[in-house]
Amino acid sequence: MPSSSGFFSDKRCPIRAKRERRKEARPGELLEAALELFVEKGYAATRSEEVAVRAGVSKGTLFLYFPSKEELFKAVVMENIAGRFGGWNTEFEQFEGSTPEMLRYCLATWWEHVGATRASGITKLILSEGGNFPELAAFYRREVVAPGHALLRRILQRGIERGEFDPGIDVQHAIYAIVSPMLFLMLWKHSANVCVEEGVPLDPPRYIQAQADTLLRGLCTPAGRASDGGPAS
């Protein structure tokens, strides 16, 4: 809710207020334009000037906020993926359901906020170009892969401690088993259906449900299976 001073400033001087909002919005507009271009063209082929043009600002304005293309890309990753882990860890702390339900919720949430959005193209970009830009690859591992794996590790450990997951599971490789189907889904989204059989459509919610069902059959103890409330809504 805007403060009373901000509200009355808008009423007294709408032109000035519009300019102030525009100035504040520029970083977000630049990040949105950069995300679009990075996903469309890749990192190497995207030029900073193109980002400025698409955002409707000057090149000088772009460099005022992001002094290099590398810093711009890192900001895009933080805005669209890495910056979400704080909230997701808070949800982990507050989640009251069973761990099987938590895992289903985790997969559905990742798809809703990353996989189903343009941001999923960042993952494809890193997989295809990370070898040519090792510093960006290291940044992605540090800011996305490491906290993502840490959160999944917490989920698996929670299930083990509550008697819902088999204590004998290989936790680290179970993390890869959870991540892999989501990687496939994001690659499918940006591959013009090359990854699926012709005439057999892939429905993301059904795919995620099937993957969760398969994963939980291997992870759950009898008590865990009893506590599984089924597909996430």
Plain-language structure description:
The protein has 233 residues and is mainly alpha-helical. The chain folds into two domains: 4-69, Tetracycline Repressor, domain 2 (Orthogonal Bundle), CATH 1.10.357.10; 81-227, Tetracycline Repressor, domain 2. It has twelve helices and no strands. The protein has helices spanning 4-12, 14-41, 48-55, 59-65, 69-80, 85-94, 99-115, 120-129, 134-161, 171-189, 204-219, 222-227. Helix 5 runs parallel beside helix 9 and helix 7 (99-115) packs parallel to helix 10 (171-189). The longest helix has 28 residues, at 14-41.
Q: What's the structural blueprint in terms of helices and strands?
A:
Elements: H1 4-12, H2 14-41, H3 48-55, H4 59-65, H5 69-80, H6 85-94, H7 99-115, H8 120-129, H9 134-161, H10 171-189, H11 204-219, H12 222-227
Helix pairs in contact: 1-2, 2-3, 2-5, 2-8, 5-9, 6-9, 7-9, 7-10, 7-11, 8-10, 9-10, 10-11
Domain unit count: 2
Helical residues, percent: over 70%
CATH class of the largest domain: Mainly Alpha
What's the CATH H-level superfamily name of the largest domain? Answer: Tetracycline Repressor, domain 2
What Rg do the Cα atoms give? Answer: 21 Å
Structural class comes to: mainly alpha
Please state the average pLDDT score. Answer: 88
Q: What percentage of amino acids are in beta strands?
A: under 5%
Largest sheet, in brief, is: none
